[in-house]
Amino acid sequence: MNKISPIASLLACLFLAVSACANESGADLRAVIQEKFPGVQIDGVRPSPVAGVYEVVLGADTAYVSADGRYLFSGDLYEIDTRTNVTELSRTQARREVLAKLDERDMIVFEPAGEAKHTVTVFTDVECGYCRRLHSEIGRITQLGVRVRYLAYPRAGPGTDDWRKMEAVWCSLDRRRAITQAKLGQEVKAPDCGATPVASQYALGESVGVRGTPAIFAATGEYIGGYLPPERLLAELDELAKQHK
Q1: How crowded is the C-beta side of 135, counted as CA atoms within 13 Å?
Q2: What is the pTM of this model?
């Protein structure tokens, strides 16, 4: 199923908002956008590395607005000399902050027996083949010292059998056992527990740019990608850890 990124869905609104205030010299862009479109969640407006251009943070995504409010840019900004993707650095920082604030009581966490070397947050689906493959190796992953935090991302979307299966997993008293059963194709029976975090986790996945599952994020905010064999996953995490020292 095709996904529309949060920034794509807001670009038209943001364009109208900043254009409408083009003559409001010195106006606070964040306040202006918030006033024009109160439903748009603006997490920050700050100067970008380019003079006269401001970075608008939308969850884990980014847009750019000229200081006079006349122009809005979407896409990635690169520093030419170093070939650095400045926008991706901003996304990584935003994702790191978002992931650090999550309540693990709403997750399904698989812990190493000893000290954890790394923690990954994985948006998962019980129906996807590579999610099942990753989960089949969860013992080896944790044996290597990687702590795995699962968030729900039923790709088929709300109102589907996939969604209901994940609701049942999150309603189960033993979520780890339930998600293992579901990924084996077994039916999970659980009482209706009312509100679950599935909807909010799905929305979070949309906001941080999840387009497929499994979607693996390092604690440092980097999007590692989809399925990786356990040893390769550990190698990726070790390399990221070195870069952040």
Answers
A1: 28
A2: 0.77
